[in-house]
Amino acid sequence: MEDLILNKIIETSNNNITVIDSEGIIVHSNPEHWVNYGMKPGTYKGTSIYDLEKEGLLAPSIGAIVLNEKIKKTILQHTKTDRVIMSTGYPVFDEKEELLFVVSYSHDQTEILELQQQYEKMERKVKGYQTEVEELREKEFEQNGIIARSSAAQHILKTIYNISKTDATVLLLGPSGVGKSTFARILHSHSNRKKEQFIEVNCSTIPEGLFESEIFGYETGAFTGANKQGSEGLIEQADGGTLFLDEIGELPLSMQAKLLKVLQEKKIKRLGGKKERTINFRLVTATNQDLEKMVQEGRFRLDLYYRLNVIPLQIPSLEERKEDISYLVQDCLQKFNSAYNVKKRIHPSTYDVFTNYNWPGNIRELENLMERLILTIEDEVIYPTHLPANFNTFQTNSSFSLDNIEQPLKVTNNLKEILENTEIQIILKALKKCKTTYEMATYLGISQPTVIYKLKKYKNKLDHS
């Protein structure tokens, strides 16, 4: 009776169950189980699993493996019908630890594996698309007139892209020379106002006596020497577009109140005029000063500060964009070589100096230095010795030590060979530690272009090391 019930349970189970005895003879099995192996449905009671294995129907047999090893095992079987079966076998012992039976369960994994393969294929495609997107993003960054390989610069650009379609007021913060005006132009070029005017005003360059007439415009006869037809101011010229007020901290207090009124009412009145004109522009401002401190000192209006400080963006200094330095140098080199019809080159050791220098004048300092070097250095290659004296104080920060070299250096009296062998060992050590040339550059305390140069120089020797 119990045997009858057991047979019925196995035959009707959704799991594919097979029970064999200690000789490998099938005593119970699910009839539908064998269809996966290319066999007709049946119990196959009394059949030897060793015979089925020899015929290639069970490749291999989970029962035979468990009988041999006497422990639980799980395997994948590939059948003649191109199915993939996962089988798990359990040994059954008596009180004397003698093996009596092996109970095995099998599950068809073909569809799951196919789904897994499809997923992996799709994942590879997604990674490929992500790579393409990153490449397009890098091209877009460079096409916008700015090199942004560093995470700091890319973060700012992504933020600018996110807010570009709005009309929110943006305050660009950062030291002199970081390219605030360039970021302001990118913001305008991605905005809904990109087809309209971008008016840039440097508040520090307009004399206070002329500020009102320049910014707000004037009517006929407003002052001695005024144009007879009057003149529209810079704010009016920005109507429909973007007004960029650089060095906003230099805006006279008397003009701050008038600018605040324009921002609040969206109307403007020319100097000497009575008529108010409705105005529509987006305001972007920039400063290298601490406006909060200026507010506390009474040099900047608090209400205007709140109007300007809607979306403050801190533009990173060049020292915070180490990854961009070599690309910026290359960009300047190409630009000035073309402008002055020369073919100057930068020695890899010079890149090291540039990378470790702190650049207090930021991108403007780098551009001015590159132009000066190209115009004044007679040699075709620019070496560290050609740089100004303040560049000589840099120190290379490296996490590498010669004590870390694992392989002994080749014994030789030739100084050139000694230096090359040492350099190769150092590079090999870095290759083991780092995944990218940028990581190697950081690890060795040199620039990324220098790493690439060294890898190419010693390629054959490194391949055989």
Automatic annotation (TrEMBL):
<keyword id="KW-0175">Coiled coil</keyword>
<dbReference type="InterPro" id="IPR058031">
    <property type="entry name" value="AAA_lid_NorR"/>
</dbReference>
<dbReference type="Pfam" id="PF18024">
    <property type="entry name" value="HTH_50"/>
</dbReference>
<dbReference type="InterPro" id="IPR035965">
    <property type="entry name" value="PAS-like_dom_sf"/>
</dbReference>
<feature type="coiled-coil region">
    <location>
        <begin position="105"/>
        <end position="139"/>
    </location>
</feature>
<dbReference type="Pfam" id="PF25601">
    <property type="entry name" value="AAA_lid_14"/>
</dbReference>
<protein>
    <recommendedName>
        <fullName>HTH-type transcriptional regulatory protein TyrR</fullName>
    </recommendedName>
</protein>
<dbReference type="GO" id="GO:0006355">
    <property type="term" value="P:regulation of DNA-templated transcription"/>
</dbReference>
<keyword id="KW-0805">Transcription regulation</keyword>
<keyword id="KW-0067">ATP-binding</keyword>
<dbReference type="InterPro" id="IPR030828">
    <property type="entry name" value="HTH_TyrR"/>
</dbReference>
<dbReference type="InterPro" id="IPR009057">
    <property type="entry name" value="Homeodomain-like_sf"/>
</dbReference>
<dbReference type="InterPro" id="IPR002078">
    <property type="entry name" value="Sigma_54_int"/>
</dbReference>
<dbReference type="InterPro" id="IPR003593">
    <property type="entry name" value="AAA+_ATPase"/>
</dbReference>
<dbReference type="Pfam" id="PF00158">
    <property type="entry name" value="Sigma54_activat"/>
</dbReference>
<keyword id="KW-0238">DNA-binding</keyword>
<feature type="domain" description="Sigma-54 factor interaction">
    <location>
        <begin position="146"/>
        <end position="375"/>
    </location>
</feature>
<dbReference type="GO" id="GO:0003677">
    <property type="term" value="F:DNA binding"/>
</dbReference>
<keyword id="KW-0058">Aromatic hydrocarbons catabolism</keyword>
<keyword id="KW-0804">Transcription</keyword>
<dbReference type="GO" id="GO:0005524">
    <property type="term" value="F:ATP binding"/>
</dbReference>
<keyword id="KW-0547">Nucleotide-binding</keyword>
<dbReference type="InterPro" id="IPR027417">
    <property type="entry name" value="P-loop_NTPase"/>
</dbReference>
<dbReference type="InterPro" id="IPR025943">
    <property type="entry name" value="Sigma_54_int_dom_ATP-bd_2"/>
</dbReference>
<dbReference type="InterPro" id="IPR025944">
    <property type="entry name" value="Sigma_54_int_dom_CS"/>
</dbReference>
